[in-house]
Amino acid sequence: MATVGVVKQPARGVRGPIILRWLRLARRFPLGAFGFVCIGLIVVMALTAPLVAPYSPTQVGTGLPLDGPSTDHWLGTDQLGRDLFSRLIYGSRVSIIVGVIAVGVAASIGVPVGLVAGYAGGWADVLLMRIVDAVIAFPSLILALAIVATFGTGIEVVMVAIGVALMPQYARIVRAQVLSVKGSDYVLAAKATGAPGVRILLRHIAPNVWAPVLVVATLGLANAVVAEASLSFLGIGVKPPQPTWGNMLLDGFGQMQRRPAMSIAPGVAIFVLVLSFNFIGDTLRDALDPRLRGLR
């Protein structure tokens, strides 16, 4: 007796539809695709720094001091004979880590503050938002400077300082989103059924704030990178010999006439990374905003 088997369809390439989908998105948002590719390359470079960098970033005397580009040193050397290309690669690690952790600190403080202030209202809203206004009263870089000057230098202090300085953006935008949705029918229906406030806040209101928070977080990464570079350039950020793009700018500041590449290389790296984050943030805003989605 012949057995009837299930005829299996030939496996279709899983990658094909995914690649086509990415190509359609890249065609629709070319700037976002450019930013995504640039950030992806920088992240890969940071993760594979020990494999990509030809020298240790702190190794002194790898070449002649202030030597120009060559086959051994693609970007030349600094005043201590350290390889600039290796320091540039390892400096990307600091920028990525500081940006991600600082944004995480800002969001972990600002999002709960905005949720509670917007949903609770009354005195809680007034108290929390006045604290946020007090933080906003200080320019973010000045506030970060004050925190670093108070608690000392170091990468951990720098990340927390930048995160605290960026926190008000998240608190204000989350509060605005909560105020816009807490009067919606589904929220009122949940209240009518006797659902506790915490459940309503976390299950019915919080999901509506993630889209703008994601956009602000992407743009916040750019601000965090600039803030870290500024603090390191001023000499109160991440301390040498650990390389960062900011202290590389500081090292090259006094050698602009003789070795401009010492400042140009980290400056271009900061420019590309910040621009890429801004491109991705603008793309996410356009893609997640239903009012703008229909215009494309």
The unreliable regions are: 1-15
Rg is 24 Å
Outline, from the CA principal axes? elongated
**CA distance, first residue to last residue:** 60 Å
Query: Percentage of helical residues?
Result: over 70%
Quote the average pLDDT.
Answer: 87
Classified by CATH, the class is Mainly Alpha
The assigned CATH architecture is Orthogonal Bundle
CATH topology: MetI-like fold
The domain tally reads 1
Structural class: mainly alpha
- Find the CATH superfamily: MetI-like
- The tally of beta strands, per DSSP, is 0
Number of helices: 13
What is the ordering of alpha helices and beta strands?
HHHHHHHHHHHHH
Kindly estimate the percentage of residues that lie in beta strands according to DSSP. under 5%
* Main beta sheet: none
Assembly state of the chains shown:
single chain
Give the helix/strand layout:
Layout: H1 15-28, H2 30-47, H3 49-52, H4 84-120, H5 122-136, H6 140-151, H7 155-181, H8 185-192, H9 197-205, H10 210-233, H11 245-253, H12 261-288, H13 290-293
Molecular structure report:
The protein has one domain: MetI-like fold. The radius of gyration is 24 Å and the shape is elongated. Helix 4 (84-120) runs parallel beside helix 7. It is mostly helical and 296 residues long. Residues 1-15 have low confidence and may be disordered. It has helices at residues 15-28, 30-47, 49-52, 84-120, 122-136, 140-151, 155-181, 185-192, 197-205, 210-233, 245-253, 261-288, 290-293. It has 13 helices and no strands.
